[in-house]
Model the fold of this input.
Amino acid sequence: MTHRVTQGAHDSEHGNQARWWGRWFAPREWAGSLADLGTFLPLALGVSVACGLDLAVIFVGAALMCVTSALLFRQPIPPQPMKAIAAIAIAGGVPAGAIAASGIWMGLFLVVLVVTGLVEHALKFIPKPVVIAVQVAVGFKLLLAALSAVLTGDGSLGTGEPLPLLGWDSILIALIALSLFMFCKKMLLVLPLVFLAGIGIAWASGELIGPMITPALPTPGLVTMTREHWISGLVDLAGVQFPLTLLNSVVAVCALSARYFPDHPVPPRRMAAGVAGLNLLISPLGAMPMCYGSGGLAAQHCFGARTGGAPIILGFFLLVTAVLFGPTLTSILMAYPRSILAMMLVPAAVALIRFLFDIRDARSLAIVVPAVLVALCSNMLWGFLTGMALASTLRLSRGAPVLQRAPGDTLDTGTVNETNATMRNDDPDAR
Done:
């Protein structure tokens, strides 16, 4: 009898393990795993070329963040480069020491917020319309980046020249890729297949010259940081990045997590701790500072990912790519069709912009629209401050119920309670 009970328990445990494996590495997790590469690859490549960072080491750092994301959050939340740091570094050719120092500063800032509990204290008072404004602004920024890369050649994806109408890398290819992404995204593996097609296009067009596979182990090493690097990393880079990370990598991504996964949203403190710990580890070793963003979660979720399996698959892809293509990785990515990379941003952008439909009253709209416009015309920080100022003004003048949270309510539970009543997601797995 005891043997039968033991055998039954063993079979049940084996069945649970099989179901876990089946969910985390189901075809839809593979389909969504590469969805955020349109954001990651151009910034990583730009920082590598402009500042001399080893692209293979950046890939290894991102792979480590992918695995950490899967273990900490158990949701499809991939890493992204810290965009303000990346943009300033690309534009100004910032030395590698200053970039490493900025990542350490960012980690230390977030550690202070986590240890003191200030991260949840601060987020408790951010109204829902302001959170929606941040998410929608991120969506419009992604959409504008995609359109600019194709039509004008500007931005991190651009080369200064618009794409031709016809050709291997052209507006026609962009339209075909966009049609597949938007209308065939329910088809499993459409994104990985289109991504592989992009490599074929680069080879067929003659952009890829010479041997591609040149295996070499990435060689992380401690970056030399002088006093000037520490000062520049704090004043020029981390000081600009910190409020944006707090908004997009803590506020917006935790709110989106609660929207997509109301039964187990990611707590803000855990999110901030994950970003802090990883940047303190990878930045001194030559990887660029990274975080987790709402755009990455929206992108992977849009293409079907629902578990931490998608980041693990992405991390495996990045690690294998770094090892197989090490010395030639930069030239391969520079040859990749801009038309496909740009269109990879659009589904995530649309998913974020759709949150505008959650606005049910004119007073909330009066907060969201100006905040989004200011964010698009200047930057995310000014948009956030505009939204908070308008929310405070409405609260003081009229007392808007939509702006209030229950006493002691945090961003996690508050967003979940507000979201459950208005969720517009048609995916039953997200309910």
Q: What stands out?
A: Residues 26-121+152-348 form one domain. The two ends are 41 Å apart (CA to CA). The CA atoms of residues 392 and 403 lie 9 Å apart. Residues 8-14, 402-431 have pLDDT under 50 and may be disordered.
